[in-house]
Amino acid sequence: MMSGAKKQAANIDVRMFEDVSVLRRKWQAALRPGEVLARYEDVMLGSLGRLADHMMLLKRDHGAFAVSRTGRYAQKWLGDERWDIPIEALPPDCVTALTEAAGNAIANSRPYLATAHSMRDGMVRTYDVLALPTFSRWGGTLVGAYVNERGAQYNLLDAIFSTTDGGVIALSTIRDATSGPSDFQIVHHNQAVAKLLNLADRSLQWQRLSTFEHPLGSEVVIEQLKAAVAKNQGSQFEIESDDRNLQLGVTVFADILSLVISDVTPLKRREASFRLLFDSNPIPMWVFDLETMAFLKVNDAAVQHYGYARETFLQMKVHEIWPKDEWVSYTRLLQDIDKTCQSDRHWRHVKADGSEVCVLAYGRRLTLDHREGYLVAVVDITERRKAEARIAHMAHHDGLTDLANRALHQARLRDALEAGHALGERVAILCIDLDLFKNVNDSLGHHMGDHLLQKVADRLRSQVRGNDLAARLGGDEFAIMLAADTSPKEASDIAVRLIQALSVPYEIDGHQVVIGASIGIALSPGDGTSSEELMRNADMALYRAKQDGRGVHRFFEREMDHQAQQRREMETDLRRALAHGEFELHYQPVVDIASESISGFEALLRWRHPDKGMISPAEFIPVAEDIGLIGPLGEWVLREGCKEAANWPSEVRIAINLSPLQFRSRNLVQVVVSALANSGLPPKRLELEITESVFLAETEANIAILHQLRELGVSISLDDFGTGYSSLSYLRSFPFDKIKIDRSFVKDLAKRSDCVAIVRAISGLGRSLNITTTAEGVETTDQLDWLRAEGCNEVQGFLFSAARPAAEIEQLLLRFGAWESRAA
Ligand SMILES: Nc1nc2c(ncn2[C@@H]2O[C@@H]3COP(=O)(O)O[C@H]4[C@@H](O)[C@H](n5cnc6c(=O)[nH]c(N)nc65)O[C@@H]4COP(=O)(O)O[C@H]3[C@H]2O)c(=O)[nH]1
């Protein structure tokens, strides 16, 4: 069944449809053959009847239309009863429809039907506008326009409100006797209200709130509405209804109130989740106002981490947790901040106690309490950064002294050389080697050695400035790089200062330790332009400084390069010499002062180089020691010496020198046993000469080896006695059979009383300890007389003979007999 209104609307539509058809037919019928348009008189004049009320005549005037002649209905539609109205004077909705219809009709030379929507008193009406194009005998085109409302009007507000999810209620205020607001009555509402209030089945119309059993009728709501009416001012508040959060927005129109209800449950849940995530998050978080930079919200973790009380925090601005030197840069960063920010940089923050932390910050924009804010979560990476820095530091520094290590030193040197090259500035390298450090390490132990190195490092550190760098290259090798354009004079002054500083006695664990330093200097670009070359040359200069008696500094000279070359050659030649049989032994007689006879021979090694001739052991033994050849070479000497001595008269002994490095091989005893066994030489005819340096390293083990040798029946002599540091204590460490007085004391016997005193003391010592004393380097009879007078037991030296090849031994024995008869 159709409602009355709908039926009426349907009738109107049918009539309108008929009107449009009639007019179209009339226009078609008026079209004469050969003419494009129907004539005005044929269409518009006469026989329009009822339709005349709905008609308008449109003239074209200079391109724009004007309306002349309007029927009554058309006048109402236009809202204007005048004849001749310019089109721009009409309501815009009419203008749009008329222009569209008339324009298209003229363009197509056919009737054209357009639709117009008009808004009148909140009601929307739809009209059909039919334009009939005609031509007039008096010239020009005239358009007859028919207008009629198509269907039922409807209320736009109702239509809009019925399609929204938001609830809208109109309430009228009920006043009491004092004319104050006492209650409210629902006078109108849209469909969404019932759904929002979960009251689908109940009618709300005319419901009084005070009797309305629903949270909407609660006292709280009524009081809020009363207050709004009293103040004539809108308000907004929330209520809960069936697990839903409803937001009520009140607008006051005198005694009528509109209540807009929206469901804010999802929003509330989001807020609750945010609160939960924010408040109890272990990661420090805050929200700050993007405009004022003030903290709006901070979570517990932030309060704890930064050490500010929450109230203090909330009165602060973001920049107050930045270090002052970053205020400008960080403010600039925040100005460019995006909707979200993934921290790709480190931020420095300052805690309440003034300490600084390093953090990563992650953030996003949000609205909090109607303010544009920024939510920030921070991850403190201070410890991680420290650990990273520690690891990076460790990779570039020496663990013991904390000085730069070789890698960092090389890298910095390369950089300095590059910069120096660009600027035309010199870079100096000072290679430093500690004199006598090995002694300390060996005699006082590694622990003391380490302490000493640390103190050395401290002194070096205190001597370097600016871009200069002190480094430990390993062991007791250090280097200083002087990066600022350094002259040779400056480098030399610094080297002198360094040697002085390092030579001041060290106080370590109650011991006073004295060491020195030797320094080699190389300067770029003259002594090298690459780090490798410069270091190699500084090292060569250092080698020279050590050769020159230590405690001095030397600059690199091209000649050193030559010497280094020679040394390399010697190393190569030495490796070959043993296999090629280039070594031989010479023997120097040892004379017994009392019996004035040869008691033995000292075997002294000789190297007959195929090109260079005879090379002194003083030159090649240290090299053989350095390249590890001393083991096989020493073994060869022992075998060869014992074999030779086995041919001598039975009372003549042989003395053989042992390098301290031979003790390292651990098979020394075995080698001696084998040499004796192979030669058949009785052990008592073999003397092994050692220097006190045997006691400097692995003392216990070496003393044990000495005891084993002695148990074989071999004698042990202490060579070069008096030249070392603590010889007397070594005499206690091992029961030596012989002490050899160094030739430096013998040399000046006749001239220097201190030498006499030393020789006297050593001889006395030997006597009281029952140790034979042998004086070396006796060249004059004067010296011999002094030695005899001081009670020395044996002598050897050029006075009797230099070391001679084995073939001359027999002759020597004979010749000695001759000397013996001449001396008598
Ligand atoms: N000015 C002067 N010198 C005299 C006199 N009498 C002897 N000499 C020299 O003094 C050195 C004595 O040997 P050294 O103190 O054991 O000192 C030796 C010894 O430490 C080492 N050496 C020699 N042969 C061997 C060896 O077979 N093994 C080891 N490990 N070292 C050896 O080489 C050093 C030097 O040996 P050489 O050049 O042969 O030098 C020998 C000898 O030629 C003299 O009256 N005046």
TrEMBL record:
Residues 425-558 form the GGDEF domain. Residues 270-314 form the PAS domain. SUPFAM superfamilies: EAL domain-like, Nucleotide cyclase, PYP-like sensor domain (PAS domain). Residues 567-817 form the EAL domain. GO terms for molecular function: cyclic-guanylate-specific phosphodiesterase activity. It catalyses: 3',3'-c-di-GMP + H2O = 5'-phosphoguanylyl(3'->5')guanosine + H(+). InterPro entries: Biofilm_reg_signaling, EAL_dom, EAL_sf, GGDEF_dom, Nucleotide_cyclase, PAS, PAS-like_dom_sf, Rev_trsase/Diguanyl_cyclase. Coiled coil: none annotated. Gene3D superfamilies: 3.30.70.270, EAL domain (3.20.20.450), PAS domain (3.30.450.20). Pfam families: EAL, GGDEF, PAS_9. One of its GO terms (biological process) is cellular response to nitric oxide. This is EAL domain-containing protein. The lineage of its organism: Bacteria, Pseudomonadati, Pseudomonadota, Alphaproteobacteria, Hyphomicrobiales.
